[in-house]
Structure formats: C-alpha cells, structure tokens
Amino acid sequence: MSVMGIHHASVLVRDLKASTTFYEKLLGLSPCERPGKPFDGLWYQAGEQQIHLIVSARAGTEADQDYPGTQRHIALRVRDLAGLRERLQAAGVSCTGSRSGRPVLFCHDPDGNVFELIGEG
After folding, report:
1. How is the chain split into domains, by residue range?
2. Tens digits of per-residue pLDDT, 43-82?
3. Is CATH 3.40.50.2030 what the domain over 8-119 is classified as, yes or no?
C-alpha cells in the first residue's frame, strides 16, 4: 500500500488570532515551521502529524448538522480528556460527548471546524 498515514489536516480559519488561542492555549499544540506560502496561516505539530490553519473568508460555511460526529472533522488522541474538557468549558467552548459512550468529546474551534478528542485508554 502506498499510503503510510496522515501527514496533515488543513482547516480553514477566519481569525488567526482567535484560532491561535484555541489551538495553543486550549489544545496545547506548538507551532512548527511553515514554508513560504502565498496565503496567511499557521502550522502546528500534533504528534507525528500536523494541523495546518489556512486563513480563508470561506471558513465555517458548512451547514450545521445535529451531531458533530457525522460532520467533517479531525480526530486527536489526548492524554487527559477530563482535564481538557474542563479547560475548554472554562474558556466557553461547548463540548458534546459521544453517543456511543466512548471516552470522546466533540467541540468546535472559533471557525466551526469540528474536533473529535479521543481519550487514551
């Protein structure tokens, strides 16, 4: 098989400053080197993979659906799901649990991009 894994996921954002707060302060990601591009954005290292923020006026234009697990999303494995839930909620970020009862949270970044946060264990 030619595919070896996910290299990165790109998400569209409108406000890079608000997104920086979400990705760095709440999710705890660290920026990484970003090659010169003809558009504004920021790259983050997420384990062996990366998340690329791309500034776009089209961010958050997907119609809302009832359950975030059925929307396009990025899933991240996390060590302390309960602690992360507390940090997100303290910052006013709404979280939804999994309908299956798995140790999973769904939340939205400032531009409406959906994240699935999967607890270890």
Report:
1. 8-119
2. 999 999 999 998 888 777 664 456 676 567 888 888 899 9
3. no
